[in-house]
C-alpha cells in the first residue's frame, strides 16, 4: 500500500481495456479510481521525455505547459544532424569537467533549450507557461526561462548552480521543487 496526499492507494491487477492490455488501475481505500495531480502528471511526462536523452552523464526531460496543455517537450542531446555522445563519447568526461561548469564544452543542448527551440520552430509562445523539468535548470537556461516569459518551474532534481536559482528568484519566476 502506498500513501499519497493522505489517502491509502491500492494498486490492483491490470484491468482489460480495449487496446490496452497493460493498464494499471489505481484506487483509494474506498475503491475510487485516483489520478495523479497535474504536477505529477506533467513531471512523469518529463521523465518519459528524458529517456530519449543521449547524454552519458545525466538524462533530463522538459515539458512546457500552458492551461494544462503541452506546448513543447525537450531532452538533452546533440543538435539535429550531429553525432550524439553515446556514439562519440563525452568530451566533458574526457576533460574531467565538473557538473555545472563550462557548458560550452558539450555537444548537447539542454532539455529546456530543446523545448524552447521546438516551440520557436512551430511559432508557439511560451509567455505565461509552466516548465516541468527533471533537473534544476542551469544559469544559461534560467536566463532563457526568464526571457521566454515562463512564470513557474517545477523541478524534481537538484543541479549544482545556485546562480540559476538566484536569477530565477530575482526575476520573480516561481520555483517548486518536488520530491521524486
Q: Any idea what the radius of gyration is?
A: 18 Å
- Order of SSEs: EEEHEEHHHEHEHE
Structural class: alpha/beta
Largest sheet data: 5 strands, mixed
If strands are numbered along the chain, what order do they take across the biggest sheet? 5-4-6-7-8
Beta-strand percentage? 15-25%
Total strands: the figure is 8
The mean pLDDT is 86
- Total count of helical runs of at least 4 residues: 6
In short:
The chain is of the alpha/beta class and 180 residues long. Helices cover 28% and strands 20% of the residues. Helix 5 runs parallel beside helix 6.
Summarize the structure in words:
With 180 residues, this protein is an alpha/beta fold. Helix content is 28%, strand content 20%. The chain contains six helices and eight strands. It has helices at 38-50, 85-88, 91-94, 111-121, 139-148, 162-170, and strands at residues 2-4, 7-11, 26-28, 61-66, 69-75, 130-133, 152-155, 174-177. The strands form two sheets. The protein has a five-stranded mixed beta sheet, with helices on both faces. Strands 1-2-3 form a three-stranded antiparallel beta sheet, with no helix packed on it. Helix 5 (139-148) packs parallel to helix 6 (162-170). The longest helix has 13 residues, at 38-50. It starts with a strand and ends with a strand. The relative contact order is 0.13. Mean pLDDT is 86; it is low at 1-5 and 7-21.
What features would you highlight for this structure?
alpha/beta, 180 residues, three-stranded antiparallel β-sheet, 8 strands
Amino acid at each position: 500500500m502506498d500513501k499519497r496526499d493522505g489517502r491509502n492507494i491500492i494498486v490492483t491487477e491490470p484491468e482489460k481495456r480495449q487496446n490496452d492490455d497493460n493498464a494499471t488501475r489505481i484506487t483509494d481505500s474506498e475503491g475510487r479510481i485516483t489520478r495523479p495531480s497535474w504536477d505529477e502528471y506533467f513531471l512523469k511526462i518529463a521523465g518519459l521525455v528524458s529517456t530519449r536523452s543521449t547524454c552519458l552523464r545525466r538524462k533530463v526531460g522538459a515539458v512546457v505547459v500552458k492551461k494544462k496543455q503541452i506546448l513543447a517537450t525537450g531532452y538533452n542531446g546533440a543538435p539535429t544532424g550531429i553525432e550524439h555522445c553515446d556514439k562519440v563519447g563525452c568530451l566533458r568526461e574526457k576533460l574531467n569537467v565538473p557538473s555545472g561548469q563550462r557548458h560550452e564544452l558539450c555537444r548537447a543542448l539542454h532539455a529546456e533549450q530543446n523545448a524552447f527551440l521546438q516551440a520557436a520552430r512551430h511559432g508557439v509562445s511560451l509567455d505565461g507557461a509552466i516548465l516541468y523539468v527533471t533537473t534544476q535548470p542551469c544559469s544559461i537556461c534560467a536566463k532563457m526561462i526568464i526571457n521566454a516569459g515562463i512564470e513557474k518551474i517545477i523541478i524534481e532534481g537538484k543541479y549544482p548552480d545556485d546562480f540559476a536559482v538566484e536569477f530565477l528568484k530575482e526575476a520573480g519566476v516561481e520555483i517548486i521543487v518536488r520530491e521524486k
